[in-house]
Amino acid sequence: MPSVTLALKDLRLLLRDSRSAVILLLMPVALILVLGLSLGEAFGRKPDNSLRISVVVEDEGLPAKPGRTFPPNGRWTEVVLDDLADTGKVRIEVVPSREEGQRLVDRGQRAAVIVFGPDFSRKVERCSFVGGDFVDEPINPLNKYGIRTDAVGVTVLGSPFQPIGVAVANQVTQVSLMRVVIPWMIGKAFELIGGDKFMTKFLEGIPALFMPKQFSTPAGRALLGDYIKKGIAKFFAGFNFTALTWADLTKDKKTDRLDENRTEYAPNDPGIGRGSRRYQVLVPSYTVTFAFFLVLTVGWLFVTERRHGTMTRLRAAPLTRGQILLGKLIPCLVVSVFQGLFLLLAGKVVFGMSWGAQPWLLLPVVLSTSLAAVGLAMFVAGVARTETQVAVYGTLLVLVLAGVSGSLLPRDLMPEGMKEFSRITPHAWALDAYEQVLHPDAAAVNAFVIWQACGVLSAFGLGFLLLAWWRMRLD
After folding, report:
1. What is the residue-wise DSSP string for 287-310?
2. DSSP bridge partners of 157
3. 314 and 463 part of one domain
4. Do 276 and 127 share a structural domain?
5. Summary count for the chain: helices (H), strands (E)
6. Are residues 181 and 124 in contact, defined by beta-carbon separation less than 8 angstroms?
7. Strand 112-116 and strand 262-264: pairing?
8. Cα separation, 292 vs 380, whole angstroms
């Protein structure tokens, strides 16, 4: 077939410059590597709507005591962390040491790190509304701002360059400490009501004239204390003053411990980060982007053939416009498909990228993306008349389409309106298909989304080819 002969000839021309062919394949891999190392592990993840509070737990807990059930494991930090984890949109990150927390703050990787000191539980246990007559070495942790963190052994390591983040971390910590410490103080104070020390102090302020003799004995004072407790409880019927937690104090529904909101700190991989989530975004994004860079190669190929008179000779040969276009299309399509498969293979081997649950679906996605890219390349080649026009038209078109589509900037960071607008580009449909196929956590893929994207990409390709056939001048 004449088209096949012409295709083989053009394929030899494309592959004649071996250095250019190697650069065409390796340049995207090098760019993906550089971006992966520069952007870090956070790139490629959807924006986290949760507020992250980083904490260091040095708390040594309370001395062992028979029958102790509260706080859990003898550590008040467990109560505070449970309260934080139960707060909407707050995620707790446990950093292994104070030194690591300070390093994260110094490097600007965290705005603030909250450190619960070794004596945190012992200090909380001594927090009290009452004086030393009733509690040994009581601590009053309250001031006009809330809880004095230094009074309970809490230190905030804050970055001077992120004052807003430090303020937010301080405020969240203050609220949780108040919800933990104040119920404990109220509960312990209420527990003392009716005790011998309390009743002695209480009766000292009441003239004997008004105090029945039956309450003058220890048993009578205890009975009166019980009456006082019951009376206070009825007066504040909406609260349970014997409680030791905020939920019990307010008689609110107590939620289960939210373990999914508590994570261990995981340092970023300082090296290539094989298998990192960022490569699940970078590899398909730049596979699509560089597929459309074929616009420049094909455009320069056509311009060179026009300048050398090859196009005129082809026109004089017994070949139709369609056969010439097909002969030019096939080698470019072969190169584009090979480049796409090579980059995905490099993503798997070099970067440890996942190919998803059904990797065979990558083939139709690569084919349809290549068809759209080659179709656009043919159209530009048909319009451009000089190398300068190819460079200007092609570069501008490739970069604008890559920017609008989300190939350069993850689509998850785009406003919703821009996400929808990006669908005017073939790139966006290709990225949708790759996202479905390459999802590392999905047990199955949405076949409809994939095949719909492949159909739209094929339609883009055929539409561009029709425009190329209409606009192409073979002189």
Report:
1. HHHHHHTHHHHHHHHHHHHHHTTH
2. 113
3. yes
4. no
5. 18, 7
6. yes
7. unpaired
8. 11
Q: Please, is 473 exposed, middle or buried when counting C-beta atoms within 10 Å of its C-beta (0-12, 13-18, 19+)?
A: exposed
- Give me the amino acid identity at 48: D
Domain housing 126: 51-181+252-264
Query: For 283-312, what is each residue's pLDDT tens digit?
Result: 888 888 888 877 777 766 666 666 655 655
Identify whether 230 is part of a domain. no
Rounded Cα gap, residues 86 and 66, in angstroms: 29
Q: How far is CA 308 from the centre of its chain?
A: 54
Handedness of CA 458, 459, 464, 470 (dihedral sign): positive
Q: Is 210 exposed, middle or buried (0-12, 13-18, 19+ CB in 10 A)?
A: exposed
Identify whether residues 25 and 96 lie together within a single domain. no
71: cis peptide before it, omega within 30°? yes
pLDDT digits (tens, 9 = 90+) for 94-143: 999 999 999 888 877 788 999 999 999 999 988 888 776 677 788 888 88
One domain for residues 170 and 293:
no
Lowest pLDDT segment from 8-12, 57-61, 423-427? 8-12
CA atoms within 13 A on the CB side of 283: 31
* Dist CA 31 CA 33 (whole Å): 5
Q: What angle (nearest 5°) sits at the alpha carbon of residue 301, between those of residues 318 and 371? A: 85
Q: Give pTM, 2 decimals.
A: 0.56
Q: Are 296 and 378 within 8 A, CB to CB? A: no
Give the pLDDT of residue 106. 84
| SS3 state at 469 | helix
Give the residue among 184, 185, 180, 220 at the shortest CA–CA distance from 202: 220
Q: What 3-state class would DSSP assign to 390?
A: helix
Q: Are 180 and 79 in contact (CB under 8 A)?
A: yes
Return the closest-CA partner of residue 141 out of 157, 120, 127: 127
Helix %, strand %, coil % of the chain (to 5):
65, 5, 30
- Distance (Å, rounded) from C-alpha 111 to C-alpha 168? 9
Choosing from 264, 288, 307, the residue where a domain stops is 264
C-alpha atoms less than 13 angstroms from C-alpha of 126 in its C-beta half-sphere: 16
Q: Rounded to the nearest 5 degrees, what angle is found at the Cα of 174, between the Cα atoms of 173 and 175?
A: 90
Both tokens of 234, joined, read: 């009825």
The residue-averaged pLDDT of 73-96 equals 83
Question: What is the rounded CA–CA span in Å between residue 142 and residue 62?
Answer: 22
Decide: residue 54, CB within 10 A, 0-12 exposed, 13-18 middle, 19+ buried. buried
d(CA 463, CA 4): 22
Torsion, CA 188, CA 194, CA 195, CA 196, rounded to 10: 150
Considering only CA atoms, which of 444, 426, 431, 328 is closest in space to residue 373?
426
